[in-house]
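WARN retry 2 of 3 for item q-0093 after timeout on previous attempt; input resubmitted unchanged.
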Amino acid sequence: MPAPARAAVRRPTTHRAALLVTAVALATTAASSALAASGALVWAACAVVAVGLGPVFLTRRGPRPGLARAAGQMVLSLAPVLLLTLVYPLATAGFEGRSVGGAPVATLLLASSLTVPWLSQSVCMPLYRALGELNAGDDARAADDRFCEHWPAALVQSLPVLALFAVPAALVLGLGPAAVGAYLLLCVLHVAFAQSLVVANTPQRRRLWALAWTAYAAALLAAPALWFLPPLAGLVVQLLALRRSLVRVRRPARLEHADVAADLLRGLLLGAVLWGDKFVLFLASGAHLAVQTIFTALLPVVLAYNHYFVRLAPGFDASVARVRTAMEQDTFAVLTERSRALYGTVVGSVVTTGSVAAVLGLLVTAVVAAHDPAALALSATVTIASWFLLMITVLCYKLDYIGRRLPAQALSAVHLLACVVVFTAGTPALEAYAALVVADLAVCAVALALCLRHWRTPEYTLFWRLATSW
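OK item q-0093 returned
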């Protein structure tokens, strides 16, 4: 049998193996309370991890960096998670008992921490539009110059979206004017910092990304009472890196207001899938939010999310580029072959991401069972809910990528509506997340069906996307 045929047989086989591992991991996580009572959870987690790692990583296709380089990229990509996980518990003593306008600093910091990940996905979208293909290329100077031309206007144009977070936070938490001002200041500084990282969020410049987050964490550790300092410190690192391009700006550029508004809405909806539930739950629960349990359960998804962008996205992008080249230069037979390969890459990246998240989720659940059994039920439920959040996010990204933005945003909006309904109904977090799993099961199924449908014949979808952009 020729090599391509053998590969075609092997890929569905590894996909099925990875799907089986995913199902076993999720089922074991769901049954964690009973298994923990019998002492079998840790052994089950170890078995699934041992059996699952091989099929999971065999599904990866396309160009891939060496193991050492990939591990380095992963560590750099996870810099904010690793640094803040280490530093934040040490810094908490520095702002305990402090307040701004009657609101505890700890509450304001938690509110901004739950706002910023979601907000960042919105406010960075206009700058990705401004950079276009430059941000994915090797011409760092051209990307920096283009970024600095558009950044001042994009920053100002993005600020109105803060009202969508500040108004409900002020009303629900009962914040006074000074506290609202502090919350807005934190958000503005984080918006500027997040936007400044757009040009650093590439494999070639990941060290700069990590350096900026190191400055952020160092400021938080050194002076926790100065709650506004961390994003400012990270921003200073980026300004120094961009200083030459900032000096070269002669005439700042501005994107059309309608385009910026569309990008802000698009980012808000896509970002709501992974981060909206935490913000809504915080507003509904306030001081009763089980922060440590929820964020521990979210950790597997964060790792799998970064694994997708560091290890899988480059192969996916390369496969898309090959299809586009075939559309312009090669025969229909070559185009058909490359389109089929791209569809396999899409399926493989989705399957692999789900497997990584499920296996890591089971491992974290086993650790929680051993060290904090009282939090096990909530942790396992949030772990499963977070798995669905990740899958919906990845599927919506792929729909958005291929030009099906309306379905992607509609699915994200349905998820956000489900979050608002379940978390404002007055039910405990455990029951609310269980209800969210049921709702997101349907959203995920629709997103998967649409994703497979539109990527099954990518040559046609990509052609019409290119044709309508002329």
